[in-house]
Specification:
98 residues, mainly alpha, DNA polymerase, domain 1, two-stranded antiparallel sheet, 2 strands
Length: 98
């Protein structure tokens, strides 16, 4: 658990709604999974979401069940269009207001 100014931060339950810039250290994941991700350089929720499955599966101590847990709880990459914040922005139709 991360400490700020001597105070321990509360751990946050993993969910697809978490912001991409949230530190993995603050997400309530199994300790083995959390430590393996951080050791592999995946420090934020966004890092994990955007990492290809093959990269995560190459991380020591992580396997198919860990990958499934991460994809289910943190969500898939925004580039796949599965998270609500990944909805395409449509151009405004300026002619409707005339």
């Amino acid at each position: 658990m991360t400490a700020v100014n001597g105070k321990r931060l509360a751990m946050i339950d993993p969910s697809p709604e978490l912001p991409d810039d949230l530190s993995i250290a603050n997400v309530e994941l199994p300790q083995k999974v959390q430590q393996a991700l951080i050791a592999a350089g995946l420090r934020t929720v966004g890092d994990v979401r955007e990492a290809p499955d093959t990269k995560i599966l190459r991380i020591p101590d992580l396997g198919e069940s860990s990958l499934a847990l991460l994809r289910k709880t943190l969500g898939l990459p925004s580039s796949l269009g599965v998270r609500s914040d990944a909805a395409p922005i449509l151009p405004k139709d300026d002619h409707r207001d005339r």
